[in-house]
Amino acid sequence: MYHTSMETLTVSVLFLSLLAIFGIDASRKRREFLQKFCQENLVPETVKARERLSKRA
Fold this sequence. Notes:
Strand content: under 5%
Number of domains: 1
Order of helices and strands: HH
Radius of gyration: 21 Å
Structural class: mainly alpha
Largest sheet: none
Oligomer: single chain
């Protein structure tokens, strides 16, 4: 079965869109995990200082 260029383009755009969406979602979840992991393993004073700095920004 031969695909026309429009069908190929549509499938390519759909595939790349899904890849981008899942990639962005995975990086967001990774960032949230790392933030949680770092907060649990840091000294409480360091966490408080970091929270104060983030409120200023």
